[in-house]
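Example 9 (inverse folding). The structure is encoded as follows.
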């Protein structure tokens, strides 16, 4: 049994198939399939159900999966501990951004510049970027699929998510000068309910 076989097994289960697992691991799909079959032969158990559209673990596969993940985590822990002695930081960080945040500075925070500086300082850390809506990224944070996300919050964050405010701006409605909203505004403000029923042009 080899660590690569365990890594391939975990990737296939997490990605739901051999092709996507191979893409994630940057290896050939036949190689992943062959290694997983070899692991199944060594253990004398079928670990994956390949009959559906999505590859899923069998009952034996589910049981083995927990130990496979623990073994991979232990090896990563050994590497991380050794790296601490040499001052080398390695690993992966998954970052989510609201649309447009990667192409422009978010307030006083230059996202692209920060990521560039971080990569220069820690070249062994793999950075993955995702652009999505705030709602979906907050859900991804809670599931552990993202490590960090730049999102827009209109209220309190969901439980289990820590927040640091990098930009706090008022929400404004731009209308024609003769729009009834302008006349009904009090001290330049209108209630959010006044926009009910109106067609809006806005970010997702």
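The amino acid assigned to each position is listed next.
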């Amino acid at each position: 049994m080899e660590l690569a076989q365990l890594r391939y097994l975990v990737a296939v289960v997490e990605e739901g198939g051999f092709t996507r697992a191979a893409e994630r691991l940057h290896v050939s799909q036949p190689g992943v399939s062959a290694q997983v079959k070899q692991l199944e032969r060594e253990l004398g158990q079928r670990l994956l159900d390949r009959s559906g559209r999505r590859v899923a673990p069998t009952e034996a596969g589910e049981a083995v999966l927990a130990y496979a993940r623990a073994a991979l985590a232990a090896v990563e822990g050994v590497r991380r501990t050794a790296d601490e002695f040499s001052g080398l930081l390695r690993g992966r960080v998954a970052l989510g951004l609201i649309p447009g945040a990667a192409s422009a500075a978010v307030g006083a925070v230059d996202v692209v510049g920060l990521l560039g500086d971080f990569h220069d300082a820690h070249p062994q850390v793999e950075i993955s970027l995702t652009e999505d809506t705030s709602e979906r990224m907050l859900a991804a944070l809670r599931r552990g699929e993202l490590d960090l996300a730049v999102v827009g919050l209109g209220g309190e964050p969901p439980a289990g998510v820590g927040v640091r405010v990098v930009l706090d701006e008022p929400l404004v409605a731009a209308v024609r000068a003769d729009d009834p909203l302008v006349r009904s505004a009090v001290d330049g403000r209108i209630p959010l309910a006044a926009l009910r029923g109106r067609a809006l042009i806005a970010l997702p």
